[in-house]
From TrEMBL:
Segments of this protein annotated with the region Disordered: 464-485
Protein name as catalogued: Phorbol-ester/DAG-type domain-containing protein
SUPFAM superfamilies per UniProt: (Phosphotyrosine protein) phosphatases II (SSF52799), C2 domain (Calcium/lipid-binding domain, CaLB) (SSF49562), Cysteine-rich domain (SSF57889)
All residue ranges annotated as the Phosphatase tensin-type domain in the record: 135-307
Pfam families named in the record: C1_1, PTEN_C2
Keyword Zinc listed: yes
Domain Phorbol-ester/DAG-type: 8-55
InterPro entries the record matches: C1-like_sf, C2_domain_sf, PKC_DAG/PE, Prot-tyrosine_phosphatase-like, Tensin_C2-dom, Tensin_phosphatase, Tensin_PTEN_phosphatase
Cross-referenced CDD domains: C1_TNS2-like, PTP_tensin
GO cellular component entries: focal adhesion
GO molecular function: metal ion binding
PROSITE patterns: C2_TENSIN, PPASE_TENSIN, ZF_DAG_PE_2
Length: 485
């Protein structure tokens, strides 16, 4: 109305089917408001006093400024009232977060299906942050990860580049969470190297680790599954925590092995746990990249299903043939200066001479038996490594016997040796006297373009030390051999 501001309004409550703008604060009116019986003046219930103040005949500038401030305050009160009503109707995730100490640099990510083990983060956060942080982002790949594999199996993983202080703090956070939820009914199965920070924070720790960048020994894989099953079968409240630092595939190999173990040795009541383990492998681990990991899982599955017959007799290695010419020699443009190292149970048992391979060489053979015509006896877990010897630092290079070490000094600009390929196998699964590995079955070479795409490695065995098979692999006289690597 044109002269509405000069009237004394007679307000009554009214329910609005559609939103109407308030004539005082100009904010929309939802559902219930006030309307004048005479001039149909519409406003909020809280704006009635301001509408009556506008009808005064005389108003100073100070009163006008005061009314403006009241208008702003009223709009903010209405906005706050709407926000409170929405929060009461739809509770936020922040209302259900457990209270934790504020000294937390690295958050702990738990299973998203478990309401009592949601992400533990800093307490002072907004509701929007709590909702968006339910799924881990790529930036969290460099922090600790705690996930539920099943209801009774937990995976605790730390990245390799985490500092010692952050690692200790993460162990404290994990121990606090595990103890508060499961008491003393959990055991940590450490799949990495033994660490004091793990033993000091957890009451029960089982050391089952193996060297980095290698597949677990077959006996170790069997003992891990038996230990986990023995611990869980002792009490229905017990929890198994798989702990690893470094490569996440350590946990993936153990979970996949225990999945095969439960398919054969456990009852049908654990079908839901097997489904949860498969989902964990798909979501957290993915496909295993290292070929030796996949090979040892096939060994383990074949032994459980009795598809692989155990060969307890030793094998005698006579020759190793490398098909193709790896391109590791930068000075020559192609080729390499290759030598082999063979480990039995991580103990070095053989080192060959240096074979100078040109880029035109199609294959070269290492005569392991030598002039004695006697094969190298092997039994159990075998590790074969092929290195390229650089020209530099030859005089100061060390003949290190560690299967995981590739250079003699970390300060060298150019390491004295560089890994070309490696492979792990177990003699119990070798049924023929020739064992072949393609490029996709060789560690380090499967994703290295310097190794030929059609390259392969063949191992030739003999049934006894004196009975070298004839004819042996064709020699390669064009490849010079240096017997002092």
């Amino acid at each position: 109305k044109p002269d509405a501001d000069n009237q004394n309004h007679a307000f009554r409550n009214k329910q609005f089917k559609k939103s109407r703008p308030c004539n005082v604060c100009h904010q929309p009116i939802h559902h219930q408001g006030s309307v004048c019986r005479v001039c149909k003046f519409v406003c909020h219930k809280t704006c009635e006093t301001k509408a009556e103040a506008k009808t005064l005949p005389e108003r100073s500038k100070a009163n006008h400024k005061k009314a403006t401030n009241r208008y702003m305050d009223t709009s903010w009160l209405i906005h706050q009232q709407w926000q409170e009503e929405e929060i009461k109707t739809f509770p936020s995730v922040a209302e259900y977060r457990p209270s934790t100490p504020e000294s937390s640099e690295e958050p702990i990510y738990a299973h998203t299906n478990d309401a009592s083990s949601r992400p533990i983060s800093k307490p002072k956060q907004t509701m929007l942050t709590a909702v968006n942080n339910r799924k881990p982002s790529r930036s969290r790949e460099h922090s600790m990860d705690l996930s539920y594999v099943t209801e009774r199996i937990i995976a605790l993983w730390f990245p390799p580049e985490v500092s010692a202080a952050t690692f200790r703090q993460g162990q404290q956070q994990a121990a606090h969470m595990l103890h508060s939820k499961h008491g003393n009914s959990y055991m940590v199965f450490n799949l990495s190297e033994p660490r004091r920070a793990v033993r000091s924070q957890h009451e029960r720790v089982r050391e089952l680790g193996w060297p980095p960048d290698l597949a677990p020994p077959l006996e170790r894989l069997c003992s891990v599954c038996k230990d986990i099953d023995f611990w869980l079968s002792g009490d229905s409240h017990r929890i198994a925590v798989l702990h690893a630092k470094g490569n996440r595939e350590r946990i993936g190999v153990v979970v996949a092995a225990y999945l095969h173990y439960s398919n054969i040795c456990c009852n049908a009541d654990q079908a839901l746990d097997r489904f949860a383990m498969k989902k964990f492998l798909d979501d957290k681990i993915g496909d295993l990249d290292q070929p030796s990991h996949r090979r040892y899982l096939d060994y383990f599955s074949g032994l459980l299903s009795r598809n692989i017959r155990i060969n307890a007799a030793p094998l005698y290695l006579t020759h190793v043939t490398v098909l193709g010419s790896p391109s590791f020699d930068e000075t020559e443009g192609s080729g390499c200066r290759a030598f082999l190292k063979i480990y039995e149970g991580l103990v070095p048992v053989y080192t060959s001479g240096i074979h100078t391979v040109n880029g035109d060489t199609k294959q070269f053979t290492v005569n392991v038996a030598g002039d004695r015509r006697r094969g190298l006896q092997l039994r159990g877990d075998i590790l074969l490594k092929c290195y390229h010897r650089h020209f530099t630092n030859e005089a100061s290079s060390s003949t290190s016997t560690s299967p995981t070490r590739s250079c003699s000094s970390p300060g060298d600009l150019i390491p004295p040796r560089e890994l070309i390929f490696s492979c792990q196998f177990h003699t119990c699964a070798v049924a023929d006297y020739t064992l072949s590995f393609t490029r996709q079955e060789l560690d380090s070479a499967w994703n290295d373009l310097r190794f030929p795409l059609d390259g392969a490695v063949e191992l030739h065995f003999s049934p006894n030390p004196e009975g070298v098979r004839f004819p042996p692999p064709a020699p390669t006289p064009a490849v010079p051999v240096d017997l002092s690597p």
